[in-house]
Design a protein that fits this description.
Elements lengths: L2 H15 L2 E4 L4 H14 L4 E7 L5 H14 L2 E6 L15 H20 L3 E3 L13 H7 L5 H4 L4 H10 L25 H16 L5 E6 L2 E6 L4 H4 L2 H13 L4 E4 L17
Parallel strand pairs: 1-2, 1-4, 2-3, 6-7
Antiparallel strand pairs: 5-6
Helix pairs in contact: 1-2, 2-3, 4-5
């Protein structure tokens, strides 16, 4: 399908829903979905639901508040702590399943309280190319994924976001902080705070696409390939080392492959 045909398909899907609660992180996909739902259904028939938790970067939460207000959509904020979910903190390969089942359960409960018909998430067609057990939880709980149903890819969503002037069009892909740990490495609040602090440093220094991965005493940094040379410049490198060590890391490593989605799945036995 052409991009315009996909957009029309998305609008037809949303029209049929009548009203919806959007699981809203403030990322590229959920922001576009929220605006599309607002444009089709009206602002009074859409709610943005954001769950705060230790795995949700503080910067991203603040961005979600700003974006919901910018779009004129009511945002409902609920507390969630994935670390309390049995089987989550141990970080098994199916960690995302447990997390999404908890999150979508919260969304469904809130949708029922508000009298809204459907819960939506921002999954897109490209998500089918990676290991994402959270999709299983969405299917089990009958969560709708209109962007995926309309066969929209991540680049399609970015292009449509550009067309409607969304500030998230060029935003780096969003993933919770739990995705920074190798499977089997225990996730704790302290370790999540370490990563949040280090990624905040990179963001404040103007890096656009990056991840800080946790490997015990070592922080492994992934940045876009066109930013590799800048991160080893002494003006950045010296301050970076000081900040990462202050956050609790003994060693700081730069991944020469650069940023890529799902790098923690590389070499892992996934089922």
């Amino acid at each position: 399908m052409t991009l315009d045909a996909k957009k029309l398909k998305l609008e037809r899907i949303l029209t049929e829903l009548g009203s919806a609660v959007v699981a809203f992180s403030g990322g590229v996909d959920s922001t576009f979905l929220l605006q599309a739902a607002r444009d089709v259904l009206g602002a009074d028939r859409v709610v943005a639901l954001t769950a705060t938790s230790p795995t949700y970067p503080s910067y991203e939460f603040n961005e979600s508040v700003r974006l919901a207000a910018e779009l004129g959509i009511r945002q409902v904020v609920v507390d969630s702590n994935e670390l309390d979910i049995p089987g989550f903190a141990e970080n098994p390969p199916r960690r995302c399943y447990h997390c999404k089942k908890e999150l979508f359960g919260i969304c469904l409960k809130k949708a029922k309280e508000l009298g809204f018909k459907q819960v939506l998430d921002g999954s897109n067609l490209d998500d089918l190319d990676d290991y994402r057990p959270g999709r299983e939880a969405a299917t089990e709980l009958s969560i709708r994924s209109p962007l995926l149903e309309a066969e929209l890819t991540k680049e399609d969503i970015r292009e449509l976001s550009r067309r409607c002037g969304l500030s998230t069009a060029e935003k780096q892909p969003f993933a919770c902080l739990a995705s920074r740990f190798p499977y089997g490495t225990r996730i704790t609040a302290e370790r999540l705070q370490q990563l949040d602090r280090c990624e905040t440093f990179l963001r404040n220094r103007g890096f656009g696409t990056f991840r800080v991965r946790y490997h015990g005493e070592t922080a492994r940094i992934e940045v876009a390939l066109d930013e590799l040379s800048r991160i080893i410049d002494d003006d950045v490198r010296i301050d970076l080392l000081a900040e990462f060590k202050a956050a609790g890391f003994t060693y700081v490593a730069l991944d020469l492959q650069g940023y890529r989605t799902g790098s923690m799945n590389e070499g892992a036995a996934l089922t």
